[in-house]
Every structure is written in structure tokens, then in C-alpha cells.
Amino acid sequence: MEFGTVTRIGRSVRGWSQGELAAAVTAANGRQMSRPTVTKLELGSREPRLPDAIVIADLLGFSLDVLKPGFRGAVDFAAPDGTVVRAAE
């Protein structure tokens, strides 16, 4: 599963818009991230910078293992209500 796909699913599970994720990343790492950048990351037309990938994974609760070449496997997300949502390829 690609980083962008995992990001999109995790963001949806949290109930965040792309703009809300961009604002949260900006607040967490002090570097500006825009909504169009989130769009590009989710579509796979832009690779994440490592500091941004770390913050996004932390905010959305997934492992950076998804960045490993050939990663195959399920990714679990904790929804705001405490339920676990599993995304599998």
C-alpha cells in the first residue's frame, strides 16, 4: 500500500479534510504544508519529505513501514471513537 493511499485512508478515518491535515502538519513541525501538497501526496504525484512523513504517520497513527519498498500488508487506524479500522491491499 502506498504512502499516499494510507494517508488518505487515515485522514478519512479521523474525519479530517485535506486542509485540516495540512494545518496539523504545519502546527506539528513548524514548516508550512498546504492543502494542494496533501492532495499531491495522496495521489502519489509527490513523495513525502521524511520529516513530513514522520509527522503525518504520527498524527494519523500508522507505521512508517509503509515507506519500505515492496511493503505489503494491512494498516490499522484508531478512529476517534476508539474503534480500529483496518486497511488492506
From TrEMBL:
Query: InterPro entries, from UniProt?
Result: Cro/C1-type_HTH, Lambda_DNA-bd_dom_sf
Residue span, HTH cro/C1-type domain: 33-67
Task: Kindly give the Gene3D superfamilies that the UniProt entry links to this protein.
Answer: lambda repressor-like DNA-binding domains
Q: Which residues form a coiled coil?
A: none
Q: Which Pfam families match?
A: HTH_3 (PF01381)
The molecular function terms of the Gene Ontology recorded here are: DNA binding
Q: Does the keyword DNA-binding apply?
A: yes
For this UniProt record, give its keywords in alphabetical order, as a comma-separated list: DNA-binding
Report the protein name in the record. Answer: DNA-binding transcriptional regulator, XRE-family HTH domain
